[in-house]
Amino acid sequence: MSTKSLAAVSTDRKPNPAKSATPKLLSVAAIGIVICLAFALPFVTTGYHLVQATYVLIYAIALLGLNLLLGYNGQLSLGHGAFYAIGAYVTINLINHAGLPYWCAIPIAAVLCLICGFLFGLPALRLEGHYLALATFALALATPQLLKNSALAKWTGGFMGMTLSPVTAPKGVPLGSDQWLYLFCLVYLLALYWAAWNLVRSRTGRAIIALRDHPIAATTMGINAAFYKSMVFGVSAMYAGIAGGLGLLAAQFVSPDSFDMFLSLGFVVGVVVGGIATISGAVYGAIFIQFVPDLASHISKSAAWAVYGITLIAFMYLLPNGVAGVVSRSGQIISRLKIGRAREKLYVVE
Question: Rounded to a whole number, what is the distance in angstroms from the first to the last CA of the chain?
Answer without folding.
Answer: 8
